Amino acid sequence: MEKTKKRPPYASSGIADATLDLLRRTAPKKIDTKMIVDNKITTSTNAFTATDLLKWFGVIDEVGNVEEKLIQNFKLSGEEKEKFIKKMIEDAYSDLFEKVNLLEAKKDDVINYFVINHKFGLAQARYAAALFLHLCYKYNIPVAEELKKKTHTGTKKTKKSVDNQNNQKKENKTKSLNIPILDNISSESKVVSGEVLIEIRGASGLYFPFVLLPCRDF
Predict the structure, then answer these.
(1) Residues sharing a CB contact under 8 Å with residue 36, sequence separation 6 or more, in sequence order
(2) Residue 200's pLDDT band (boundaries 50, 70, 90)?
(3) CA–CA separation, 59 vs 88, rounded Å?
(4) How far apart are CA 145 and CA 149, in angstroms?
(5) Whole-angstrom Cα distance, residue 97 to residue 196?
């Protein structure tokens, strides 16, 4: 089978998504590493991972010439486009689907597939597995629950998740300094003779007074 002779891609999920989106936005006759870099998809060092992805899916040949009939399908919208890309993934990885039961597999099973069948080193195999599982996740290809964990590496963080992470970091830092987290803290300010007295009171007799002196001209 011709596609099994090609090198399976191991681009990051971000590079893969941006590369496929490039096909939606443009109609090139040829795609090479220079075009990948010019479109700011990735650096020149990693651009080959994007072209390898397109070769694996049969979008371009070995020298970068575009398969025009195939690329036109990337202009589709909605369910039709998703069905097209899903079928493309299933065809490209047909040997993996045949040899690994993805509904019962563990992540190591997918990694080992690339080691055994494509002679990848362990690091390469992990990247290839991560990309494959990301594509399955994004295009709704059924896999075991175990394989859904930490596969979608390109997801944007919501403001809520970022705030939660920042709060967690602050809490961890506070714990590492052995500073107690105090509840029921209240504050009060008073102005006395031009000076501002700020009082902070809390549980267990906590009391911090601060005096702010008025600004003076020098």
Answers:
(1) 19, 22, 42, 47, 50, 51
(2) low
(3) 10
(4) 7
(5) 72
**Structural tokens at position 40:** 């700011």
pTM (2 d.p.): 0.67
Tens digits of residue pLDDT in 20-48: 999 999 989 999 999 999 999 999 999 99
Q: Which residue has the tokens 């992990």?
A: 126
Residues listed for the chain: 218
DSSP letter assigned to residue 203: G
Q: Whose CA is closest to 137, among 53, 40, 16?
A: 16
Residue 108 to residues 73, 156, 164, Cα–Cα distance (Å):
33, 26, 31
Please say whether the beta carbons of 98 and 4 come within 8 A.
Answer: no
Measured distance CA(5)–CA(215) in Å, rounded: 78
In terms of Cβ atoms closer than 10 Å to its own Cβ (0-12, 13-18, 19+), residue 96 is: buried
CA distances from 200 to 145, 189, 203, 208 (A): 50, 9, 11, 5
Which range has the top average pLDDT, 74-88, 152-166, 172-186, 201-215? 74-88
- Domain ranges for the chain: 2-148, 181-218
Whole-angstrom Cα distance, residue 136 to residue 150?
Answer: 13
Q: What is the DSSP string of 6-74?
A: SPPP---HHHHHHHHHHHHH---SB--HHHHHHTTSS-TTTHHHHHHHHHHTTSB-TT-BB-HHHHGGG
